[in-house]
Design brief:
The chain is 19% helix and 38% strand. The protein is an alpha+beta fold. The mean pLDDT is 95. Pfam families: QueF.
Length: 129
C-alpha cells in the first residue's frame, strides 16, 4: 500500500487570514478500538474551526484519522486528543470537535470539546429575514 496512517497533520497558509470564516469537516468512517474489549468502535467526527494563520491539509487529516484504527481509547479521550492535536498543528481562533459515537452497550455517546484563543471574539451573528 502506498499510503500509510500517520499522526502528522500537514498545514497550509490560510488564504484569508484577515477574515473569520468557518471550515466544517465531517469524517463519517472513524474507527478505533474499545479499550476494554478490543472490539472496534465507530464514530462520525465533526470538526468546525475558524482558522487563524494555518489550515489543515485534508489528505493528512484522512491519514491522521486512519492512525486511530488499531488504537484503544475511551470516547472522551479520543475526542479530546483529536482537538489537542489539531490545536497544536494550526492554533485556530476557534475549534469544536464532536465525536458522534455509535451505540455501545445500548448507549449512544456524543462528546463535544472546544478551544478558543483567549483574545478571539466571534463577530455578532447576523439574522437575515
Amino acid at each position: 500500500m502506498s499510503t500509510q496512517p500517520s499522526k502528522t497533520l500537514e498545514t497550509f497558509p490560510n488564504p484569508y487570514p484577515n477574515r473569520d470564516y468557518t471550515i466544517h469537516m465531517r469524517v463519517p468512517e472513524f474507527t478505533c478500538l474499545c479499550p476494554k474489549t478490543g472490539q472496534p468502535d465507530f464514530a462520525t467526527i465533526l470538526i468546525d474551526f475558524v482558522p487563524d494563520q494555518l489550515c489543515v491539509e485534508l489528505k493528512s487529516l484522512k491519514l491522521y484519522m486512519w492512525s486511530f484504527r488499531e488504537e484503544g481509547g475511551f470516547h472522551e479521550a479520543v475526542t479530546n486528543g483529536i482537538l489537542d492535536d489539531i490545536v497544536q498543528a494550526i492554533s485556530p481562533r476557534f475549534i469544536r470537535v464532536t465525536g458522534e459515537w455509535n451505540v455501545r452497550g445500548g448507549v449512544y455517546t456524543n462528546v463535544v470539546v472546544e478551544y478558543r484563543k483567549p483574545d478571539w471574539q466571534p463577530a455578532p451573528r447576523v439574522e437575515l429575514p
